[in-house]
Amino acid sequence: MKKLMTVTSVLIIFSALMSACNLKPTTPTPLGPDQISTIAKATVDALTTQMAPPPATATPLPTEAPTATATLLVPTLDLTVPTLSLSTSTPIPLPTSLSVAGCNQISKIEDITIPDNSLVKAKTTFVKTWRIYNGGTCTWNSAYNANFVSGDTLAGDVSINLKEVVPPGGSTLVSVNLTAPAEDGTYKQYWNLTDAENKPFGFSGGGLYYVVFKVGTTATTTSGYVISTSASDTNGSRGTVITVDGNIDISGIGTTKVVVKYLFRIDGTKCSPATTIAFTADGSQAVSAQCTIANSLSDGNHTLELYISEPHGANNVSYGTLAIP
């Protein structure tokens, strides 16, 4: 209703304006319904356009702030290789020809006579005995030798053959005859073993075994005397009793009577009763005893030992070979 009244008002105003423009009144041409509708519509459209609010202007979005780029600080590494300063050492000379590693080597040594730093009277002949253990994988035999290598030169043995077969893990006694010098002092000799091809060996890594003793013009051994022994080679059968022989030498007793107790052993096991022999002066005496050969012994060669049990500290051992066919 409100819209119709507005259109009618517009038409009245329009007519009035038209009348004012003509000084001479004219007869108006009557309008048909379709013309009136067309004029009204055009007028309404024009007013609508004028009255319409201006189009909204799009507000530009704020520009996205640039993303800050993280700066990764990589530490500077000092890759300078340090210079190593190695101390200079004097190389240890080794034999130029050695047995195959692991085949021949000594695992352990025991002093049987003349312990380290024993006192020995000047110019006295004595026997140094070691028990040497086979720590390798090869069997030793009589083609193997014990040899003087270096140290003080003494009168006496410089090389001897082993007396028996020594399997891996076994042991043997090695005895050498030496004579103490006339001058006081400490003396030392180094020894090794050589195989059937004369290649030297010792402890693992090439170490040697040795004898070291002291000489004094009034010195004696710890027993008060120097006693040497030797056992003779012999044959026998298991379960039998045989006579075994040896020799005992003594020096340094002066005019004192000395009683020596001895016995025989096979591979370290006693086979004869202990027996005594008296010395009233320096010298040598032959000894013998009855030795029982155990049934448990195998065929082949065994070590026959002449062992001194008294005086205490002498404990000299020498050996021969007992062969069981």
Structure keywords:
disordered N terminus, 325 residues, mainly beta, Immunoglobulin-like, 19 strands, six-stranded mixed beta sheet, 12% helix, 2 helices
In short:
With 325 residues, the chain is mainly beta. The chain has two helices and 19 strands.
User: How would a textbook summarize the main sheet?
Assistant: 6 strands, mixed
Give the CA-CA distance, first to last residue. 154 Å
Q: Quote the beta fraction.
A: 35-45%
Count of alpha/pi helices: 2
Please state the oligomeric state of the protein chains shown: single chain
Cα gyration radius (Å): 62 Å
Overall pLDDT level: 74
Protein described:
By secondary structure, this protein is mainly β. Among the domains are: 98-219, Immunoglobulin-like, CATH 2.60.40; 223-325, Immunoglobulin-like. 12% of the residues lie in helices and 38% in strands. The chain contains 2 helices and 19 strands. Strands 2, 4, 6, 8, 9 and 10 form a 6-stranded mixed beta sheet that branches. Strands 12, 14, 15, 16, 18 and 19 form a 6-stranded mixed beta sheet that branches. The chain has a 4-stranded antiparallel beta sheet with strand order 1-3-7-5, with no helix packed on it. Strand 8 and strand 9 form a beta hairpin. The longest helix has 20 residues, at 2-21. The chain is elongated, with a radius of gyration of 62 Å. The N and C termini lie far apart (154 Å). The model is unreliable at 1-5, 20-26, 84-99 and 217-223 (pLDDT under 50).
Question: What is the fold's blueprint, element by element?
Answer:
Elements: H1 2-21, H2 33-51, E1 106-111, E2 118-121, E3 125-134, E4 145-151, E5 155-156, E6 159-161, E7 171-179, E8 185-194, E9 200-201, E10 209-216, E11 226-231, E12 234-235, E13 241-251, E14 258-266, E15 269-270, E16 275-279, E17 283-292, E18 300-310, E19 317-324
Parallel strand pairs: 2-10, 12-19
Antiparallel strand pairs: 1-3, 3-7, 4-6, 4-8, 5-7, 8-9, 8-10, 11-13, 13-17, 14-15, 14-16, 14-18, 18-19
